[in-house]
């Protein structure tokens, strides 16, 4: 499946923390660059996410903000 | 200002394309790792975003999805 | 690519309207059930979206609200 | 109340799963077409959502992505 | 229609700026408290939004971030 | 840090409810005007959010909808 989301950053799962409904998944997408996702627990289980697995962080461009110092 | 958004990736502006209401801004946050943002044209102008400027891509964790091959 | 987004509704492109930065794409996902997406013009072009093409409307569960009459 | 969100799909509640803060609600909006929402537990209770109830899945157009096979 | 979105702030339209696909709408929800929305141009027209009209800014709780100085 | 999000409403924390992964935070941004946020529990702890603290509700303009009666 090819998706319209402009951002798909390849990385490695660093942590998975399960809640009752949601899961928090952290990916390392470059050396010292991590991205944290909150997805449903059902999705985390369906994708078989566990530490060390290769995965992508996918973000729609309209959900990205820009900040400056 | 310190914000609850879990993801703030430091990078450099690679491209800014202005529309009537929105602007598309591309940041390089690591070698060969780019993130594209759609923000309002007013925000892009207020932040003075232009190619080469240092900036952060900020994303709320609940807006990040995870995908596998 | 398999994605964590819980909702991927298969349908047919009914309309594509291009703006300067964004595009508005309408899919029919069941008889008389349409979903409208705003995606970047670049994504609409990359996916080759045009009327009659099969496509999916993909929505993260945390972006869905529920309403009652 | 009439809302700007372009997508309001009428359906029937198929499942409600409560977490500590959030709830996962699944609606059937057409035969074999389901949409899953994560809303706050407080909202699920306020709306009185339970299996069999008629409800709408509401999604802002800028939160819809498009994918192709 | 009663919606799960936790935040519906009543206010008055202060400005409407139309783009090709999107519109930027600014509401004053309390003295000196303004909220800006980007909605589709089609929605802005359907709702008949114009300066001085009463309207609500509606935001899903999972789209709100918190910041401190 | 200066951010592209168009909406940053200053207020006071009225309530914080912790879940396993997420937290629900309510801010009063004007007399009788409250905004509720769902953020990660980790962010709520990192920001030291507690009742009475001054904080901002930050919302990207593309996440705001408009409704009329």
From TrEMBL, chains A, B, C, D, E, F:
Protein name: Transporter
InterPro entries: Mo/tungstate-bd_C_term_dom (IPR008995), Mop_domain (IPR004606), Transp-assoc_OB_typ1 (IPR005116)
Organism placement in taxonomy: Bacteria, Bacillati, Cyanobacteriota, Cyanophyceae, Oscillatoriophycideae
Organism of derivation: Oscillatoriales cyanobacterium SpSt-418
Residue ranges of every copy of the Mop domain listed in the record: 2-68
GO annotation (BP), single: molybdate ion transport
Stored SUPFAM superfamilies: MOP-like (SSF50331)
Keyword entries, A-Z: Molybdenum
UniProt xrefs under PROSITE patterns: MOP
Pfam family, one: TOBE
